Amino acid sequence: MGVFEYKTNIRYQDINEDNQLSDKGILNILSEAAGAHSQKIGYSVNEIEKTGYTWMLLYWKIRAFKRPCWNTKLTIRTWPRAFEKVSSWRDFEVYDEEGNLIVIGTTEWALIDAKAGRLAKITEEMANEYGMVDKKVFEEEVIGRLKPDEDEERKEEYTTKRRDIDANHHVNNVSYLEFAYNVFPEDVKLDFKNLEIYYKKQIKLRRNSIYILFRRE
Question: Is the pTM of this model over 0.90?
């Protein structure tokens, strides 16, 4: 299938207090685009009972060049750029209504056997249905892992609640960003030009310690 195009508008819940597209809004919009692509070929959350598979997000890397305001029309272009044994890399480009490139992103997703709750092998048939595009949005190497620095680590304990749980029965990936917002010092301005999130494990309905790593540039 190759490049998939998804169109949407920036919703009120996608903007920050300055009426600009927020980091949370970016993650939500890109997640929707990826989900729409999977639905197009029959591997979305709606088809889990039929296919037996679901996708779990492992890693985000985002760079924002511009943050439009509420109700701006956006075009998202997304494509798988690599398939590995049990995971896939997906890239994104986001354009505003004037055709300006405002956001780029890359993600790593793991294929999960929904019934067994463990990693599943990506078949050649599945990879062919998605299609693959030999194009990277980031010139630099993307590792997909973050190493903690003890001098820059902050910790907060949070008890997960029912409102945090999504259709995959774990805390939704965007919620982790909201946890991080509560840990950052007050002098740190939210909504960053560069953002990376690495998920070490899924969190369900139990008490967990959330560890946040931040670096000042």
Answer: no
Please choose, from the candidates 35, 131, 137, 57, the residue with its C-alpha nearest in 3D space to the C-alpha of residue 93.
137
Position 72 scores a pLDDT of: 98
For residue 99, give every residue at least 6 positions away whose Cβ sits within 8 Å of its Cβ, in sequence order, or none. none
Helix, strand, coil percentages, rounded to 5, for the chain: 25, 35, 40
How far apart (Å, rounded) are the C-alpha atoms in residues 166 and 155?
24
| Residue among 134, 93, 91 nearest 109 (CA) | 91
Tell me the two tokens of residue 175: 């919620």
pLDDT tens, residue by residue, 45-79: 899 999 999 999 999 999 999 999 999 999 999 99
Q: In total, how many domains does the chain have?
A: 1
Instruction: Tell me which residue range forms the domain holding 10.
Output: 4-138+146-213
* DSSP, residue by residue, 60-72: EEEEES----TT-
Question: Which secondary structure element, helix H or strand E, spans residue 51, and what is its range?
Answer: helix 48-51
Say how many residues make up the chain: 217
Domain containing 86 — which CATH number?
A: 3.10.129.10
- Kindly report, residue by residue over 98-147, the tens digit of the pLDDT: 999 999 999 999 999 988 989 999 999 999 999 999 999 998 877 666 66
Q: Is 131 helix (H, G, I), strand (E, B) or coil?
A: coil
